[in-house]
Design a protein that fits this description.
3-stranded antiparallel sheet, mainly alpha, about 5% strand, Arc Repressor Mutant, subunit A, DNA-binding, 6 helices, about 170 residues, globular, homodimer
Chain lengths: ~170, ~170
DNA sequence: CACGAATGCTTGAAACCTAAACTATTTAGC
DNA sequence: GCTAAATAGTTTAGGTTTCAAGCATTCGTG
């Protein structure tokens, strides 16, 4: 029998006794993490079941779809916020399946440009349509005004986090 | 049935008339994901540098800290929202380092209870103090009222996602 | 032009993570 | 009591992920 991750108990459960003082921020972070994890797990599950693929593969294709001129491995790495070694392996698998192609840059022999193949574009279009619907479905319990407010507050949160990143101050 | 029929758009018309239309939800999700990823990456980085440990290890210790009576592997798996096979390996490493101990349940010979050792408790206390400060630091750019509003909206989002999970309706 | 620094990518080791198959034990129904 | 189903954990195979080290190429500066 497969594992059932849906039947979980929150990470934000206990944590009631609070001596120090930053428990508020911690609770906020745990709730943020819970939301993301819930959505992510569900999307992974559906991607696997419906398209026999994984989230990182989908994400890489999505990056290339948005950049018709192609992206270098380094650019993909930065946009996906993962290590470059990670992208190397991911791209290798996708290339082997004929979903993307790589071409050495004519101006810089170190760099390679990744591009969707026709098949990759077709395949991603199918996945993307479904994906968009899934997200809408999961967010359907929020009123449009709530979604807008949440979006704005997350923008503020993003700015706050960026400001607190190490090296960001320098 | 709605009071004002002229202003009512049912699901069919909405689907028929629009190209896709769920870009809002998608943007919201991507921003949520970005926030979480940013924080998570930074916490991972600091845990590694300051304590030479990883986020999943920290999370497992945190679960046990909150449950002084101990937890079975399955309970940990559900609370951390990861597979049970995952917890097996994680717990094995932590036990080998003497941070946690496992004991077969006296009432159920299948189950094992995990507990922090004295050393594990000491070590986690150090990490936890730092971790709490890091989160507060990253969230420092949000006013208390913003944090409260965000927390509430994320609660709504969590409920929405839960309602949309497969099998959750059954 | 030379050469040290920076950049783009790959590789290797180790950890993480999942889904699925498996073993052992307990529970429920008859 | 017996047996089928459910439950607790482990194992296996394969993808994901990081960090650190390494190679090749380009750039900046003298």
């Amino acid at each position: 029998m497969p594992d059932d991750l849906t039947r979980h108990v929150d990470a934000e459960t206990a944590l009631a006794g609070a001596p120090p003082g930053h428990k508020d921020e911690l609770r906020l972070w745990l709730r943020l993490l819970t939301c993301t994890t819930l959505v992510e797990a569900e999307i992974r599950r559906r991607l696997r079941r419906e398209f026999d693929t994984t989230l990182p593969r989908f994400d890489l294709l999505a990056q290339l779809e948005r950049a018709p001129a192609g992206l270098t491995l380094g650019e993909v790495s930065r946009r996906m916020m993962v290590s470059n070694g990670n992208v190397t392996g991911l791209a290798a698998r996708l290339e082997e399946e004929g979903l993307i192609e790589r071409r050495v840059s004519p101006t810089d022999r170190r760099a390679q440009t990744l591009r969707l193949t026709a098949r990759g574009r077709r395949e991603f279009a199918r996945q993307s349509r479904a994906h968009e619907g899934w997200i809408a479905e999961l967010m359907a319990g929020l009123a449009p005004a709530e979604r807008a407010a949440l979006h704005a507050l997350l923008g503020r949160a993003k700015a706050s986090v960026r400001a607190g990143l190490e090296g960001g101050e320098a």
